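Box 4.2: Ligand-aware structure prediction
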Amino acid sequence: MATKKSSSKKSSSKTPSVSKVVKKTVKKASKTTGGIIAITIGVFVLIAIVIVYFLVPFSFLDGKTFNEYMNKKEDHTSHHHADPISFNGDVYDDFKINFLELGNWYTGDSIFIKAGDNDILIDAGSRYNSAQAIEDFIDANCTDNKLEYVIATHAHEDHIAGFSGGSSKNGIFYKYDIGTIIEFAKTDSTAAVYTNYVEARNYAVSKGAKCYTALQAYNDTTLREITLGTDMKMTTLYQKYYETKASGENDYSVCTLFSYKEHHFLFTGDLESAGEKSLVEKNNLPKVDLYKAGHHGSKTSSSKALMQVIQPDVVCCCCCCGSDEYTKENKNQFPTQDFINRVAPYTENIFVTTISTDNANKKYASMNGTICVSCDGTKISVVCSNNNTILKDTEWFKANRTWPTTA
Ligand SMILES: [Zn+2]
Ligand SMILES: [Zn+2]
């Protein structure tokens, strides 16, 4: 402060300062009525500019004021990194995220993460019988039979069925030692798949698991940010549908950000545009290295408002590419044309787990297969079990989708 003052004094001794010029002009102007009017208008215009800059939100600034938008922009540059993604087969054991193939034709999420000494599972879709495929993968990658953290994003079958395994009770919660469960704070579900989930979760709790809702985890300072290793953490983000009624289950999704040094990995379950709007407003989201495509690449998720903020480098989509499970309309089958249009400005690195080869007979094959994204704290590597072909270079894409030319 002191040096700033002295330097401005120095310059004022040589040339008239701005304030002097303004004072002179005002003095001159205030001698005439026209001048007084001009000064009054000037003052009002200045006040208006200050109000607009600091207080008025604009839709073209993602609903932020100019001030918030400029500050947010600055924040993001500190997270920016220009490291190339490696596809050379390297796997970094410190931090590994696996998007699992689920052993059937149905779309669903199950993501197994190794972070430091922690084994973490986000969701256990797509159907009861996916439990076997998930368990096979865990057994091959987890030596102590313990999942330190389990996240259940929302009460839909394609995310929670494998936790119970149905009436055979051979699901994840029956098979492994469970450390901490973070689950959806709200649901309107009365489906059997949900009551089976509750029974399985209660079994895990009876065996010693701790269970919190996303809202409880967020509100507890010891749980909101969990340290997983050196410079490695898991953060439960906030979004308003943890506490308010949503129009469907998807917007109740638990949202979690993993960070390793300056690298970020975002998981939003099946959150749709209303939930994404809240997520953007309530958190200072960084640019991310990896974004799990919300709602399997649906047209109702991965909104422009979210993409503009997170600007992902890699996008992994857990779906059965081109299946007609939810719609016969080609462009809205996962991954949808709208999703591709909104991701394309940021990255071509879109990966998809499986592909439907025969909708009539519910047959599927690996697309990329199980997708492994790993990070050594500096570099990011993608290695897929089937192949590393990015979505836009696949035969399916060429026959069913177009890459936007404006991207
Ligand atoms: Zn889903
Ligand atoms: Zn869902």
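In the box above, the bound molecule is zinc ion. The chain is about 35% helix and 20% strand.
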